[in-house]
Design brief:
The protein is an alpha+beta fold. The protein has helices at 2-7, 19-22, 25-33, 78-85, 98-106, and strands at residues 15-17, 38-40, 47-48, 55-56, 70-71, 76-77. 34% of the residues lie in helices and 13% in strands. The two termini are 23 Å apart.
C-alpha cells in the first residue's frame, strides 16, 4: 500500500501500524530503508538494543565473507528497555489523538 501511494505521488508522512506489522522485523526494516517515519505496536517481549548501543566488527578469521558487525551486549526485551528509560522518556497517546501526537513526537 505504501509503494502504491507513493506511485500516485502522494508522500507518506508517517506510518502507523499495529503489533501484527510491528512484530515483523522485515516490515520495520523496509520502512527504515524507505526513510519513512513510523510508529508501530510491538510485543513487550520483542528484543532490541538501547539507542546508545553501537556495533563492533570482530576480528577477521580469514574464512567465509568476513565478520559481520555485532553488538557488544545481547538485546533486551522492549519492556525492560522501557522500564530502564523511565517515565520521563515516555510519550503516551491513544485513540484519535495517536497519529497526530506520534507524528509530533517523530519530528
Amino acid at each position: 500500500m505504501i509503494e502504491e501511494t507513493r506511485a500516485w505521488s502522494i508522500e507518506v508522512p508517517l506510518v502507523v501500524a499495529d503489533g501484527g506489522y510491528g512484530g515483523a522485523a522485515a516490515f520495520r526494516l523496509g520502512l527504515e530503508k524507505r526513510g519513512l517515519e513510523y510508529v508501530v505496536g510491538i510485543s513487550s517481549t520483542t528484543t532490541a538494543q538501547p539507542e546508545e548501543a553501537r556495533r563492533r566488527i570482530p576480528p577477521y578469521g580469514g574464512r567465509e565473507l568476513g565478520p559481520q558487525p555485532v553488538h557488544h551486549e545481547l538485546a533486551k526485551a522492549a519492556k525492560k528497555l522501557v522500564i530502564e528509560a523511565g517515565k520521563q522518556a515516555s510519550n503516551t497517546c491513544s485513540g484519535r489523538e495517536a497519529p497526530a501526537r506520534a507524528a509530533a513526537a517523530a519530528v
